[in-house]
Structure to design on (233 residues):
């Protein structure tokens, strides 16, 4: 079984302060070691209060590049867009926010385009920060026809296009996502989740390992570094 440590918080605010502190430390360490930092951030609602705390950190943001670890194939001014949320929060700090989507209807081609865009970035990322849906998806690695492509992509493949099946109600659109291989190349992996249902699901997925039916279980089963999972009810 992988090495995962759960950090429990009494409130969203407490979790936001702690996670923002950890990410600030990851950025500072990367800046000290390499002079720049590369971070993949999740979409969805859970990260928002953490973004709001993190932007207050006094860091050399100009040397920090943030890209969405997955994004929904919508226009960048659509409120479903993950890069939109990241840009709104972090552009004012001076950080570089790097979009991964392109206005292409064919989601597989959009995946190829996202993969090519990421080839321009120094690799690996200092952090891949992940969320999880109540269906067990992480990043945009969903059940459906593209699950194996995302899980079994070769090491050099960073992004693929994905059509979730069933489509998630909160954002029923095609996606591009980091592959399992790319996620696992990160120097640090951190997960944030909210609610008892997700907690139970994630604990079970970790226990089930390779035999997990959930995308997050299949991703983490191959992880050979310790990960921190931050949780609040
Ligand atoms: C996305 C995500 C996704 C997200 C989970 C949790 O774009 O859909 O990056 O993996 O992290 O769906 O979302 P919530 O935090 O909104 O529950």
């Amino acid at each position: 079984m992988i090495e995962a440590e759960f950090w429990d918080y009494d409130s969203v605010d407490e979790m936001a302060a702690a996670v923002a502190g950890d990410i600030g430390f990851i950025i500072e360490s990367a800046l000290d070691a390499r002079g720049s930092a590369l971070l993949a951030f999740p979409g969805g609602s859970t990260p928002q209060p953490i973004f709001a705390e993190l932007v207050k950190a006094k860091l050399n943001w100009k040397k920090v590049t943030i890209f969405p670890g997955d994004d929904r194939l919508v226009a960048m001014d659509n409120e479903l867009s993950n890069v939109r949320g990241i840009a709104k929060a972090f552009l004012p700090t001076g950080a570089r926010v790097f979009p991964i989507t392109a206005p292409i209807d064919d989601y597989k081609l959009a995946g190829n385009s996202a993969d090519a865009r990421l080839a321009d970035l120094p690799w690996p990322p200092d952090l891949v920060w992940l969320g999880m849906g109540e269906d067990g998806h992480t990043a945009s690695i969903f059940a459906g026809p593209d699950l194996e492509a995302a899980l079994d992509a070769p090491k050099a493949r960073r992004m693929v296009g994905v059509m979730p099946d069933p489509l998630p109600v909160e954002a029923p659109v095609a996606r591009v996502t980091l592959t399992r291989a790319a996620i696992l190349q990160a120097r640090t992996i951190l997960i944030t989740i909210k609610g008892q249902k997700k907690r139970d699901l994630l604990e079970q997925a970790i226990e089930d390992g390779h035999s997990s039916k959930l995308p997050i279980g299949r991703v983490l089963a191959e992880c050979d570094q310790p990960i921190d999972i931050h949780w609040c009810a």
